[in-house]
Specification:
The structure is a single chain. This protein is α+β, with helices and mostly antiparallel strands and 778 residues long. The protein has five domains: 1-58 and 95-136 and 214-264, no CATH class; 143-213 and 268-349, Lysozyme (Orthogonal Bundle), CATH 1.10.530; 383-588, 3-Layer(aba) Sandwich (Lysozyme-like); 606-648, no CATH class; 663-777, no CATH class.
């Protein structure tokens, strides 16, 4: 089964072979010569020389779900346009027509040895619809699946956009509802979800769209594959199966239009699969029809069932994956099927757990082969999970990998936190105090929850992790209902993605800050968020083992510790851990339970209170004499008097992965060291000089002529710390060419010519103005 076509079929009433030197026309008169050549080369296989019989009368299926086809008017099916991505095949692929004739003779001999009558083969060659597609190999070279899975030229997001997976979910809803009776019968027989069956038909032929009936005749493309695509073994097998299937159904081969690969019908079965797996819905084998929707849905169910998928293991991810992969040997194809499947399941079964577990009377097996007893099945069904998707969900790209789960606390009440998380798409899941779980961003996509982050040297963890926001505070225990819901959600996600307990981390563990006037190095301690989930007692109640024993990035000197007390809480010594038990959660939090001090005093500076928001305009400093200054208005940070109170403007919480902004020489500091710390000469520090010159710190340091700009930058020079510089968008330099597959990631930022800053998920790649600057968070 293959998705899509890549070339428009020439007029079927003409017979020609097109190669790089022009068009070689094969007129009907040449067929006697071909027949004579066959007799000369293969005398043992020659016929009696009798006139070839005309094709039998074509039976036209009049059922509403099977489009009639009139062989004498093949142009009626030529409705799918040519795809522009098809490129020319090199001349070395072309064969002189004498070699074509030899290949045809060779094919005939091999088919005869397979039991295909030679007169049947000759009859197809003489049929008015016969033609050879000399450029058939291009289609295989340019298939979408090959570009992603094998050539690595494209990524999952490109493939999904090409298929239009979100549109297919919407169309699939109507498709299932329109044919609900058929799907119910198939589910009853095979135990396979209707949403999975519909997803496959949706990708293969756009839900049995008559425009997708096929632009080729199966016989023609299989012969062409033998001659031009180096698929000789495949072609012999499939033409043999096509002959047998044609005999079985009484339909002439010309009834079976196909894809370029020879896949037939609404389910895109190749002929050998038609013989092995195609099932007739009414139990009468001689009227089975690949263009009957009823027969197709039953046959897709039968195919998956014969590949070890049934009602007993439909909740097992690996069982589903293996069955669908057998249908089309492509990883990205399976991912697309599952994306549509999940979208349809969300619609028809919106409260279903992430991993369906069915309460059989006996034990079942989960994805990893572990026995799941009735109690776990009940726990899975007891998880109250529903959709509260962010408006940004459909814009978010798919993650390349899933390695971690990051736990967060909202640091605010339910209503305001949910509104913010949904608005900015800042989590995959949101757990309420009552234990309800909301889906915010599709779990396979990127949610911008971790921001500037690092673990084991890997930065920007949003691209590799699932984020869970729990309503609560970093220094307070969560509710019993939240424990129950979060424990079950983690169990399901761990099973689904095979994530080990050591890779379930807190936001406070992974967040880090760029250098600032208080800390000249990249440093850990940017967030306290979620720190409660590092407590051994909390982790036990969540079904997790004790967390990491040390910070790998501090140990490797990639980061320094900016908050020793927080670091001590997150990574306790073995002696302290041994003394803690499950009932000691509150005792372990005792030093943190009081409200954090919001007053500057000895040992407590502005960063200690406000962290990375210390210089934000949303942070207000109230001096002892009553003077009020915002963070962006303060210049002398070391002169803030003791007793100054720090306030945060109401509802001023900014999105997690925001653009951290430019610093300016003369305004935010006098030297590059004050602005960029130890990163002043790094490739991730970018300087924008008043003259228009743009260079990274590494470029300035490596150039003798530019070193002076680094030593004494002119006032007004702007500095951006912790970003990779992409450059300007130009006519021939698109955002995708600059940022690659990360062009629409939330961690990619666009500075428009008017100064506005947008995330990658906020831009339309078709209307990005020239002279837009692109930066990517490091």
């Amino acid at each position: 089964m293959h998705y899509g076509e890549s070339t428009l079929m020439e007029p079927l009433s003409k017979r020609f072979v097109q190669n790089s030197s022009g068009i070689i026309t094969i007129m009907k008169a040449i067929y006697p010569l071909i027949a004579a050549l066959m007799i000369a080369i293969f005398p043992a296989c020659s016929g009696t020389g009798e006139q070839v019989k005309k094709p039998p009368q074509i039976r036209v299926d009049s059922r509403a779900d099977s489009t009639p086809i009139k062989i004498k008017k093949p142009a009626e099916i030529l409705v799918v346009p040519d795809l522009p991505e098809v490129s020319a095949v090199s001349d070395s692929k072309e064969l002189p027509d004498s070699d074509v004739l030899v290949k045809i003779g060779e094919l005939k001999q091999r088919l005869v040895l397979n039991g295909v009558p030679e007169e049947w083969f000759d009859e197809q060659l003489q049929h008015e619809t016969f033609q050879i597609h000399s450029t058939i190999d291009r289609n295989f070279q340019k298939s979408a699946e090959k570009q992603v899975d094998c050539d690595k030229k494209r990524d999952v997001s490109w493939y999904f956009a090409r298929l239009g997976v979100d549109d297919k979910i919407e169309k699939g809803k109507k498709f299932i509802e329109a044919h609900d009776d058929i799907f119910k019968r198939v589910e009853t027989k095979y135990g396979i979800h209707k949403e999975l069956l519909a997803a496959i038909v949706g990708i293969e032929t756009n839900f049995a769209d008559h425009h997708q009936r096929g632009k080729y005749y199966a016989f023609n493309t299989l012969v062409s594959q033998y001659i031009f695509a180096n698929r000789m073994k495949f072609a012999v097998r499939e033409i043999t199966a096509l002959y047998n299937f044609s005999q079985k159904t009484g339909q002439p081969p010309q009834y079976y239009t196909s894809s370029y690969a020879g896949a037939i019908g609404w389910g895109q079965f190749i002929p050998s699969s038609l013989m092995a797996f195609f099932a007739d819905a009414n139990g009468v084998p001689d009227d089975m029809d690949p263009f009957s929707l009823e027969d197709t849905i039953f046959s897709v169910g039968n195919y998956l069932y014969k590949h070890n998928l049934s009602g007993k293991n439909i909740g097992d991810y690996e069982a589903r994956y293996n069955a669908v992969f057998a249908y089309n040997h492509s990883d990205v194809y399976v991912k697309a099927v599952f994306y549509i499947y999940d979208g349809l399941r969300d619609y028809f079964s919106p409260t279903e757990p992430e991993i369906p577990v069915y309460p059989f009377e006996g034990p079942a097996e989960n994805r990893s082969g572990k026995v799941v007893y009735r109690s776990e099945a009940e726990a899975a069904q007891g998880l109250k999970i529903s959709n509260r998707y962010s408006p940004l969900n459909h814009k978010r790209p798919f993650r390349p990998d899933t390695r971690y789960i990051i736990l967060h606390t909202t640091e605010g009440a339910l209503e305001g936190s949910l509104r913010k998380v949904r608005r900015y798409g800042e989590a995959h899941y949101f757990v309420t105090p009552a234990g309800e779980v909301y889906r915010i961003i599709d779990r396979r996509k990127i949610a911008k929850h971790a921001g500037r982050s690092m673990w084991e040297g890997q930065s920007t963890l949003d691209d590799y992790s699932i984020g869970i926001e729990v309503v609560g505070f970093h220094n307070r225990d969560i509710t019993t209902s939240q424990y129950t819901a979060l424990r079950e959600l983690l169990r399901q996600l761990k099973s689904l993605y095979r994530i080990k307990d050591k890779n379930i981390l807190t936001h406070s563990m992974v967040a880090y800050g760029r250098p600032n006037r208080f800390h000249p190095n990249k440093h850990r301690g940017r967030k306290k968020c979620g720190m409660i989930f590092a407590h051994p007692g909390v982790r036990r109640r969540l079904g997790l083992s004790i967390g990491p024993a040390r910070d790998p990035d501090v140990a490797a000197h990639r980061l320094v510790i900016a908050d020793p007390e927080l670091h001590h809480f997150l990574y306790r010594s073995p002696v302290i851990l041994a003394a803690l038990d499950q009932s000691a959660v509150q005792e372990g939090l005792s030093d943190w339970n009081s409200e954090d001090s919001m007053v500057i005093e000895e040992g407590v500076n502005a960063w200690r209170i406000a962290r990375e928001k210390f210089d934000s305009p949303a942070t207000v400093y109230v001096y002892p004499d009553g003077k009020r200054l915002r963070g962006n208005e303060i210049r002398e940070w070391n002169n803030i008097p003791a007793g100054t109170r720090v306030l945060f403007l109401k509802d001023s919480r900014e999105q997690e992965q925001e653009f951290e902004g430019f610093l300016e020489i003369g305004k935010d500091g006098k030297t590059v060291h004050e602005l960029a710390g130890d990163l002043y000469a790094d490739a991730t520090t970018i300087y924008f000089f008043p003259t228009g010159l743009i260079r990274t710190g590494a470029e300035l340091k490596g150039s003798a002529s530019l070193q002076k700009l680094l030593d004494a930058p002119p006032e007004g020079t702007r500095v951006l710390v912790g970003y990779i510089y992409g450059g300007y968008v130009q006519k021939m330099r698109t955002a995708m060419r600059i940022a690659g597959k990360k062009w629409n990631y939330p961690s990619t930022f666009y500075r428009l010519p008017d100064g506005h800053i947008l995330n990658g998920d906020e831009v339309d790649d078709k209307v990005i103005p020239r002279r837009t600057l692109i930066f990517m968070m490091k």
